């Protein structure tokens, strides 16, 4: 294996280069927000392309605010669907009876309203913006296999398809390399506290006229012990995303066979397979995990590399985006000599606490709300559904609820000394 080293290029201000591992949404957003401030960034991505799997689609108000700050919000809105009028919780009975929900049209004129765009399209927008910044380089087919550090720098060793090994040095290395993070494993081995659920998650892009014919729109959470999940309008041209949980341990073929039964039970009109078209299917394990530290010296972790949760409630990338926003403010403060690198300890502690104290319990509740309660008594038993039922009667209160400053946000600029 050939080996070369790319040296850190210290700029005239506080920071030299930042090396980011992973060109997922977290890595590209971080690169973009740092690059916009003239901080030199190298992004190392293992794959030769952006991720096309069916994952995030919906980003709540806190993430939307960061997209605006990064200058990408208008393009996200133009590429996505604007019509996302409500989120409902339903039973899986013959009529898919609506239990309650929240009317999102109360925020339709608000700049911070929820954003809806499949992740693959979001990634394209972020990459295009990165390409416009001369201080950002994104290197595909650079799989990081090792990271290291000393007192003055950190580095990531990447291998290319030619088997050449190259070292990338910077002031800091940021692991944005997702749930199977090599950076995290380099720091902590297999220690990643939390749980992996027994279920599998089946996710598919579906075209079925029956959704609109039966008056469905927006997002529809299905509460049922056997057919729990989310059916949501996700893209232009009648694209819907259907996500449901199934028992663990089956083969992919077995899951596909069981899909007909799930769709028939969950979809309005109870269709047979010749009445819908499935365009893409992906399968995931479900985890709720958080690393013990998000900083070890000059190596930091962000987003899924640090913490993951089940996707119900749309917390995964939203909290990742808030990690990136916080980390960006910390690094920019250091670059502009407004604060020392102790602010990175604040980032590591506070973002981890936000995940453990708010995101983790809420995301578990969100999933259990669908799979582990009696749909017939859900409104009586479930406080959150009761709050929604109350908000449905008061549009002003619903609006305030949707736009409020969330407990998962945190302003790191308050720690700037000058
Ligand atoms: C079914 C599903 C639905 C979801 N829905 C939502 C939603 O609606 N809203 C929401 O906010 N979140 C949602 N999420 C969560 C969201 O998709 C993730 O939180 C988000 O993609 C994490 O972004 P990331 O950049 O941290 O990691 P990733 O998206 O995993 O990106 C990591 C990148 O790092 C690269 N990489 C990995 N290892 C290496 C290496 N060794 N060297 C170099 N590169 C490497 C990978 O190839 C990848 O490109 C959902 C997740 C799932 C599974």
UniProtKB/TrEMBL annotation:
The keyword Phosphoprotein does not apply. Its cofactor is FAD. Keywords: FAD, Flavoprotein, Oxidoreductase. GO terms for molecular function: FAD binding; oxidoreductase activity, acting on paired donors, with incorporation or reduction of molecular oxygen, NAD(P)H as one donor, and incorporation of one atom of oxygen. Coiled coil: none annotated. Residues 18-353 form the FAD-binding domain. InterPro entries: FAD-bd, FAD/NAD-bd_sf, RIFMO-like. SUPFAM superfamilies: FAD/NAD(P)-binding domain. This is FAD/NAD(P)-binding domain-containing protein. It comes from Glonium stellatum.
């Amino acid at each position: 294996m050939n080996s070369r080293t790319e040296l850190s290029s210290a700029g005239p201000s506080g920071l030299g280069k930042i090396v980011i591992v992973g060109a997922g949404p977290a890595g590209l957003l971080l690169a973009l927000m740092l690059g916009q401030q003239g901080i030199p960034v190298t992004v190392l991505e293992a794959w030769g392309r952006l991720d096309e799997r069916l994952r995030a689609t919906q980003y709540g108000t806190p993430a939307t605010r960061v997209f605006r700050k990064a200058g990408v919000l208008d393009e996200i809105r133009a590429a996505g669907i604007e019509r996302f009028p409500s989120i409902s919780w339903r039973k899986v009975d013959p009529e898919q009876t609506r239990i309650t929900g929240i009317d999102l049209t109360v925020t339709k004129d608000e700049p911070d309203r929820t954003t809806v765009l499949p992740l693959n399209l979001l990634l394209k927008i972020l990459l295009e913006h990165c390409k416009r910044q001369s201080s950002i380089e994104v290197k595909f087919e650079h799989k990081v296999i090792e990271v290291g550090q000393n007192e003055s720098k950190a580095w990531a060793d990447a291998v290319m398809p030619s088997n050449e090994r190259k070292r990338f040095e910077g002031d800091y290395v940021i692991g944005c390399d997702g749930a199977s993070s090599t950076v995290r494993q380099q720091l902590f081995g297999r220690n990643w506290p939390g749980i992996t659920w027994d279920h599998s998650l089946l996710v598919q892009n579906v075209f079925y006229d029956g959704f609109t014919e039966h008056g469905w729109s927006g997002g529809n959470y299905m509460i049922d012990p056997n057919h729990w999940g989310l059916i949501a309008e996700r893209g232009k041209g009648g694209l819907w995303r259907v996500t449901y949980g199934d028992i663990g341990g089956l083969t992919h073929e077995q899951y596909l066979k069981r899909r007909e039964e799930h769709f028939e039970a969950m979809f309005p009109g109870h269709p047979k397979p010749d009445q819908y078209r499935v365009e893409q299917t992906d399968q995931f394990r479900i985890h709720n995990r958080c690393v013990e530290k998000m900083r070890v010296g000059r190596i930091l972790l962000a987003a899924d590399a640090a913490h993951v949760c089940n996707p119900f409630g749309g917390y995964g990338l939203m909290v990742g985006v808030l990690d990136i926003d916080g980390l960006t403010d910390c690094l920019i403060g250091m670059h502009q000599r407004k604060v020392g690198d102790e602010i990175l300890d604040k980032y590591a502690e506070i973002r981890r606490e936000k995940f453990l104290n708010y995101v983790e319990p809420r995301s578990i509740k969100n999933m259990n709300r669908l799979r582990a309660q009696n749909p017939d008594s859900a409104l009586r038993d479930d406080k959150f559904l009761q709050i929604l039922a109350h908000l449905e009667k008061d549009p002003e209160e619903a609006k305030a609820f949707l736009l409020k400053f969330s407990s998962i946000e945190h302003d790191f600029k308050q720690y700037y000394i000058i």
